[in-house]
Amino acid sequence: MSTFIGYFHPTESHRQAAEARAMKGDTAWDPKFIQMVVDLPLKLPTGCQMVGTYSPVGGATDTHPSVCIVEAADAEQLQFISNHYAGWLEFSWAPTIPLGASKNQREEWRQQLTNAPSQSVR
């Protein structure tokens, strides 16, 4: 199982349609899009799990996109998500590597520091 980050933004046609609705006073999410969001977790391939989807406060930009974090058995499963949102969202996927210490490593280090004999400086 690997973890992937999907950077995404609305397609130009989806963005223009949302702006047109907003200009008419309709700021609600498109019902078709809501249905797609609801349906996706139920349709994911075996071995593929959505960890979460996040967007910067104020909305995504080219320099600060929205992100989708996915655990997948293989990278090919990511294409399912891209295809699911075709015409609505455009994705760019990247594999991840862990950074820093894991929770277990931090606990191990904390215990080592707690149990270490104090050393005085002379």
Largest sheet: 4 strands, antiparallel
Record the strand order, biggest sheet.
Answer: 2-3-1-4
Radius of gyration: 21 Å
What oligomeric arrangement do these chains adopt? single chain
- Beta-strand percentage? 15-25%
> Per the principal axes of the C-alpha atoms, what is the gross shape?
elongated
Ends: how far apart?
Answer: 51 Å
What sequence of helices (H) and strands (E) makes up the elements?
A: EHHEEHEH
Mind telling me the CATH class?
Answer: Alpha Beta
Q: Strand pairing plus helix content: what structural class?
A: alpha+beta
Task: Summarize the structure in words.
The structure is a single chain. The chain is of the alpha+beta class and 122 residues long. It has one domain: 2-Layer Sandwich (Alpha-Beta Plaits), CATH 3.30.70. The protein has 4 helices and 4 strands. A 4-stranded antiparallel β-sheet has the order 2-3-1-4. The longest helix has 13 residues. It is elongated.
